[in-house]
């Protein structure tokens, strides 16, 4: 019966006439001396949105992180602390640079890096702490920044999933030494593929700008003369054109994401066994990816949730596996929350054009699976058998 219902996708971008018009202009006219027009415009607009001084558009958030860590001189023998709950894109640049990732646990309430665990993991080799704002949830930046100052360690924001999130009037990505963003097609603001490096540090900005242009410094007068080996993580002018249109709509896009999370809250507010993305004190959750975490007592598992959503013809994503559970790393089972939460959680659909009826359909799956579990456990053992 449910398979006859239209499929609900977990995410897709909001692309309108403005994006099409800007991309068309870039494709038709954005060449030669105009080949950077939309890129420059996008970088300035995003920096202004964050309230920071410098931004560099990149081909991915991973590339932005790679260049930022490289610019800090992080390499062989250095350690970088990050949450065990993360997508692999956050740890890959650390490994590529020859440094050692140190995985620490997350907090049970925010699912973001636990500052106490991060501080406990600091050694003489620690060079940075990466604060990943997971699914739009915000890290405790005030505490992390204080730890960084006290130990002389850089605090970096992985804000790939946090466009629209704010803490006491400060936008996610405006607080660390540098931050990185993603504009993948699944994100609140998209350029198809793409990312961005942001910082208030002028010297760091110049360093990354040189690295991003194959090691060619902007003051270099010789043509095609690199001063060092750099990278090629550039965003295209056509991608940036789409991004410029998205930034003109950013308040609309982020408001809709928050409205979808709020709708899920309304539909599920009477169910104590389900926790959704928390709203920070004195802040705003950008709600990139509404996520339902069931209580341990409920007995609901990730596998049962996947099966229920598949049966309802609804796309849903699993919560990130702990990085240390991947085959290329040593397991850190002491990170109890990072290992436990994914076993009873699911990411919910949240594309901008979702209707109220579709949100209700998704909420009903969560309600039904809990009701079925409760019902089966209330039956006598013989009846269950």
TrEMBL record:
This protein's record includes keyword Transmembrane: no
Residues spanning the signal sequence: none
GO biological process, one term: polysaccharide biosynthetic process
Gene3D superfamilies attached to this UniProt entry: Aspartate Aminotransferase, domain 1, Type I PLP-dependent aspartate aminotransferase-like (Major domain)
UniProt xrefs under Pfam families: DegT_DnrJ_EryC1
InterPro entries: DegT/StrS_aminotransferase, PyrdxlP-dep_Trfase, PyrdxlP-dep_Trfase_major, PyrdxlP-dep_Trfase_small
SUPFAM superfamilies the record matches: PLP-dependent transferases
Keyword set includes Transferase: yes
Residues carrying N6-(pyridoxal phosphate)lysine: 187
Molecular function per GO: pyridoxal phosphate binding; transaminase activity
Residue ranges that the Swiss-Prot or TrEMBL entry lists as coiled coil: none
PANTHER family: DTDP-4-AMINO-4,6-DIDEOXYGALACTOSE TRANSAMINASE, TRANSAMINASE
Sequence similarity: Belongs to the DegT/DnrJ/EryC1 family.
Protein name: Glutamine--scyllo-inositol aminotransferase
């Amino acid at each position: 019966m449910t398979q006859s219902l239209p499929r609900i996708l977990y995410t897709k971008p909001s692309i309108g006439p403005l994006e099409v018009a800007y991309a068309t202009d870039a494709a038709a006219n954005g060449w030669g001396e105009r080949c950077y027009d939309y890129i420059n415009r996008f970088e300035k607009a995003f920096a202004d949105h964050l309230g920071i001084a410098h931004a560099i558009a990149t081909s991915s958030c991973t590339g932005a992180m790679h260049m930022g860590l490289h610019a800090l001189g992080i390499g062989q023998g250095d350690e970088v602390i990050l949450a065990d709950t993360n997508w692999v894109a956050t740890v890959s640049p650390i490994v590529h640079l020859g440094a050692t990732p140190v995985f620490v646990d997350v907090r049970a309430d925010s699912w973001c890096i636990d500052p106490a665990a991060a501080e406990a993991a600091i050694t003489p080799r620690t060079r940075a702490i990466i604060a990943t704002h997971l699914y739009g949830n915000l890290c405790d930046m005030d505490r992390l920044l204080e730890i960084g100052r006290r130990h002389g360690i850089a605090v970096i924001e992985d804000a790939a999933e946090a466009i629209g999130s704010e803490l006491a009037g400060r936008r996610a990505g405006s607080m660390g030494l540098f931050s990185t963003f993603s504009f993948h097609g699944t994100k609140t603001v998209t350029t198809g593929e793409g990312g961005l490096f942001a910082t208030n540090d002028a010297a760091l900005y110049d360093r990354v700008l040189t690295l991003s242009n194959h090691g060619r410094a902007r003051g270099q007068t010789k043509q095609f003369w690199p001063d060092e080996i750099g990278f090629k993580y550039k965003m295209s002018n056509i991608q940036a054109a789409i991004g410029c249109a998205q930034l003109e709509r950013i308040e609309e896009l982020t408001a809709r994401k928050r409205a979808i999370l709020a709708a899920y809250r309304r539909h599920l507010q009477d169910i104590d066994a389900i926790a959704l993305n928390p709203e920070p004190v004195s802040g705003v959750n950008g709600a990139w990816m509404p996520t339902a975490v069931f209580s341990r007592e409920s007995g609901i598992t990730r596998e049962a949730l996947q099966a229920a959503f598949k049966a309802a013809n609804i796309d849903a994503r699993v919560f990130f596996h702990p990085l240390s559970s991947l085959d290329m790393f040593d397991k850190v089972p002491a990170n109890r929350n990072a290992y436990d939460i994914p076993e009873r959680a699911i990411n919910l659909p949240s594309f901008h054009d979702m209707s109220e009826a579709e949100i209700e359909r998704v909420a009903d799956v969560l309600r039904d699976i809990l009701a079925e579990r409760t019902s089966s456990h209330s039956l006598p053992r013989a009846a269950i058998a």
